[in-house]
From TrEMBL:
The keyword Translocase does not apply. Keywords: Metal-binding, Zinc, Zinc-finger. This is RING-type domain-containing protein. PROSITE patterns: ZF_RING_1, ZF_RING_2. InterPro entries: E3_ubiquitin-ligase_RING (IPR052667), Znf-RING_euk (IPR027370), Znf_RING (IPR001841), Znf_RING/FYVE/PHD (IPR013083), Znf_RING_CS (IPR017907). One of its GO terms (molecular function) is zinc ion binding. Pfam families: zf-RING_UBOX. Residues 74-120 form the RING-type domain. The keyword Cytoplasm does not apply.
Length: 149
């Protein structure tokens, strides 16, 4: 009799757990939606708090001469990258992974190749440079975007 009672209690607990689990994750209950909304709001708050610390730190200038950090500037022309000026967009050379601005790439281009001004490796591309699929360095692009806000 005790074994049967234990089995019934265990079965009821499994049922209650499964019911609670399905309500929590199915989205069919108002409580589940409220819980999910609170979780999302908490995550958004954490992201905002981190942005409040990270963005100002990234926006700080070097103390020596009030210039932007080197990695926020083109390695060829030393101009700061920009998210608003097309020729200052940071692009990654596929042949070596160096980042230089689109303006410098346009100055360096030859038919179907660009030779990296830093390491002299070639990056090949098909047709014209605008359709080359050359990747934007989105880390630098995003930081330069946040600096202009």
């Amino acid at each position: 009799m005790k074994d049967q009672a234990k089995k019934l209690r265990a079965a009821k607990e499994r049922f209650d757990f499964k019911k609670g689990f399905s309500v929590l994750y199915s989205g069919s209950s108002e409580n589940a939606r409220k819980i999910k909304t609170r979780e999302v709001e908490a995550l958004n708050k954490k992201v905002d708090e981190q942005d409040d610390v990270i963005v100002p730190a990234l926006n700080k200038k070097e103390k020596k001469n009030d210039q932007p950090f080197e990695w926020l500037c083109c390695e060829k022309c030393s101009e700061p990258f920009s998210n608003t000026e097309t020729d200052r967009i940071p692009k990654v050379l596929d042949g070596c992974d160096h980042t230089i601005c689109l303006g410098c790439i346009m100055d360096l281009k030859r038919p179907h190749i660009v030779i990296c001004p830093i390491c002299k490796k070639m990056t090949r591309f098909k047709e014209n440079l605008s359709n080359s699929g050359m990747k934007t360095n989105f880390t630098v692009f995003e930081i330069s975007r946040r600096q202009t806000l």
